[in-house]
Each structure stands twice: as C-alpha cells, then as structure tokens.
What does this fold into?
Amino acid sequence: MILIISSSLNPQSRSLLLAKNVLLQLQGIDVECELVDLAEENLPRCNAGSCYGEPAVVSIAEKIKSASGVILATPVYNYSICSEAKNLVELTGQAWKETVAGFLCAAGGQGSYMAIMHLANSLMLDFRTFVLPRFVYATGESFAGSEITDNDLLDRIGQFANEMNRVSKALIG
Ligand SMILES: Cc1cc2nc3c(=O)[nH]c(=O)nc-3n(C[C@H](O)[C@H](O)[C@H](O)COP(=O)(O)O)c2cc1C
It folds into this structure.
C-alpha cells in the first residue's frame, strides 16, 4: 500500500492537487493507495511526550508503518518543508523505518528546489528510510485555480508514480 500524505493547511493548496493527482495515477496502474490530508487530521504539536499516545498520532503512525511507500506532499515554506510536515515526522519518526519515501513539492518559484533535502537526509540518517531519488517540484504557473494545467507536470507525476511503485515493490514488497 502506498500512503499519500498532504501537509498543506491552505484550503487552496496546490500540493494537495499534486497529492490528488498522484493518487489517481497510482490507481490508474492498479496500485493500492490512500490519501490522508493533514488539514483534516488535527494532529497535536510534538511535545516529545504525551503527543505520542494521542489517537490521531497512533493512527497515522500505524498507516505509515504498514505502507510500503509514503508520498509526502508539502508546500515549500522558507526554503524548506512546511511546519505541519516537519511536525508529522517529529510525531511519527520511528514509523518511517523500512519504507520508501517520496516527495511532491509546491513552491512559489524555482529557487527552492532543494527544499526537501534536509528532511530526506534526516529520514535516511535517523530512520534508514529509503528515499526515492526522483521528486516532483511544481511552481504556480502549472496550475489554474484547482486544476493542474501543465502536461509536463502531469507526465512528471506519472513518472514519479511509476518509480514509487517499482522501487517500493522491489525493496519492501
Ligand atoms: C510562509 C510562506 C513561505 C514561503 N516560502 C517560499 C520559499 O521559500 N520558496 C518558494 O519557492 N515559495 C515559497 N512560498 C510560496 C509557496 O511555496 C507556494 O504558495 C505553494 O503553492 C504553497 O503550497 P500549497 O499551495 O500546497 O500550500 C512561501 C509561501 C508562504 C505562505
């Protein structure tokens, strides 16, 4: 199972559109997958203690643990991932062992294309997560309202979906 997590809290989120599109493309190649939108989850902030026992945290940690691949869709904020995505990893870190992680990013401009690298490094070093060496980075001109209008971006999401399917099956099963 491939778990897709959208982490933007913006009701007009573009990274959520990326997440929805990768869900469709994975379903199109018969991959079992599920989309979780953190805007609807109400996760607590990580306090390194009682938060780990909260039902919402236990539930999403279980989903991450049982997935062969986890796709994190994130806005780029301040040249990095958003705080909701960072908070998710703080809450669920150990669950990222024995999984393949991939990233979909929505950004304002081209200059922040390395925004996910800090998270990718920390997942690799802390939890031995396998990081998919292909990610999707999209900027505002690829969207019109709630639509992805850029065919090249749709192709790149498709390649990403195929790679996530291939690598997670090969490494995790
Ligand atoms: C607080 C904040 C910080 C941002 N920082 C960056 C940035 O460092 N680099 C960038 O390319 N875009 C930046 N942006 C633009 C967002 O990445 C862009 O609006 C993107 O669509 C957000 O993803 P979302 O639509 O899924 O929420 C920032 C936006 C906000 C609100």
